[in-house]
Amino acid sequence: xxxxxxxxxxxxxxxxxxxxxxxxxxxxxxxxxxxxxxxxxxxxxxxxxxxxxxxxxxxxxxxxxxxxxxxxxxxxxxxxxxxxxxxxxxxxxxxxxxxxxxxxxxxxxxxxxxxxxxxxxxxxxxxxxxxxxxxxxxxxxxxxxxxxxxxxxxxxxxxxxxxxxxxxxxxxxxxxxxxxxxxxxxxxxxxxxxxxxxxxxxxxxxxxxxxxxxxxxxxxxxxxxxxxxxxxxxxxxxxxxxxxxxxxxxxx
Length: 252
Description:
By secondary structure, the chain is α/β, with parallel strands linked by helices. Helix content is about 40%, strand content about 10%. The chain folds into two domains: about 5-15 and about 100-250, Rossmann fold (3-Layer(aba) Sandwich); about 20-95, Orthogonal Bundle (DNA polymerase, domain 1). Strands 3-2-1-4-5-6-7 form a seven-stranded mixed beta sheet, with helices on both faces. Helix 8 links the parallel strand 4 and strand 5. The chain is elongated.
């Protein structure tokens, strides 16, 4: 097997818990601004995530639970558009002002990858503006060799297109890369591209079937913060912190 030359990171749920701490929080801030007392808690938002699209989630909430003030069909359609526009602005603001915390160990791990001379990439189908805010502001001290975001590929994960594109742009073989993902769709995409995969589960993905991952952990872990729980795999000298050195030895 080839020596490891790069680490590719998914963004949402891997670098930052954007759904729980970003989108959900932005919706709640918006409701308050518009004079509603509705608040989506963590568990309820997990239910809403099964519905694609923010505007659709708000409409579903109105139909099934109703907002704190009664609204007609005509009123809700116009209001949802206004609220979604404001919610998007608040979400980007949360990222740009650094109010969304990085997941445990992610910054340390990226620094280790840089120090080891590995190429670093972000491969996400999330909003390009959000990806730039994270890579250029929150992680401004990390040198990213490539950031692929938005609609750079026609087919989204679980299709491997975005990982194949990153491999092609950086001139790498699949077995020279470690991909860090958090979900079944992301894992499926990375495996289909032929890469080694570390899965860092989060609140919304820990119940998904990610058993195909080479290493499965609760997070990457920090020595002075939250420790990682190793759920699959064998890392030499593991002490609650996943290091780049351990993975290079394992996959190299």
